Backbone:
């Protein structure tokens, strides 16, 4: 059975995680019994089960990217303000 990443597992709800662990256990048993035809169906169920957690991970990444962009924008704005004050002959430390 293919496990999902630790990051994805960390974003599974308790109910999803319990179901994930049960499916992994069943799938591993089927693989031990060389019933790969049935294990394939279990793997498909796992892949469907983790989709919401993958989307939550993507959302966290997008939020992080937005926060980074806002931070960089604020730094650029501060630099422009400092340059404007220097051009006006004012010393920013005054």
Residues:
């Amino acid at each position: 059975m293919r496990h999902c990443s630790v990051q994805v597992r960390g974003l599974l709800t308790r109910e999803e995680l319990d179901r994930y662990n049960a499916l992994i256990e069943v799938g591993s048993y089927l693989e031990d019994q060389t019933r790969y035809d049935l294990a394939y169906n279990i793997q498909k169920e796992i892949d469907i089960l983790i989709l919401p957690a993958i989307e939550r991970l993507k959302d966290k990444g997008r939020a992080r990217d937005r926060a980074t962009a806002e931070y960089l924008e604020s730094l650029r704005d501060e630099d422009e303000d400092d340059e404007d004050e220097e051009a006006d002959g004012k010393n920013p430390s005054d």
